[in-house]
Amino acid sequence: MSKDKYAVGYGKPPKHAQFKKGQSGNPKGRPKGIRNLNTDLEEELSQKIVVSEGGMTKETTKQRAMIKSLFAKALKGDTRAATVLINLILGLEQTRIANDAVEALTPDDITILEDFKLRILNDAQQQKETKK
Fold it and tell me: What letters, b where the CB count within 10 A reaches 16 and e where it falls short, cover 27-44?
């Protein structure tokens, strides 16, 4: 095959079908100002509402009101509410355990990890030099 001939194949589309320099592969993309589900959910949960509790009215977030409602239903014997609460608590506990494990690194642990990282980088550098 000559030098000026371009080999078309897997991962090498024909030149005419490739994106031009500076051209996006998704020109329309996501419109500006459109927010994702997570952002909308966080905003909705943080909105304040007025609830009456024990004959008194007070302002609280929707998230807190939902949790209070779940607890009240679970305490009255609603097994679905109890299951949802237990799953929430377990998920929260797993997140807490994972965060504690990351924070529990001692200075000796950090030194060992840094030494290991340097050893791996040195090995990679040596392999790169032997290939040349």
Answer: eeeeeeeeeeeeeeeeee
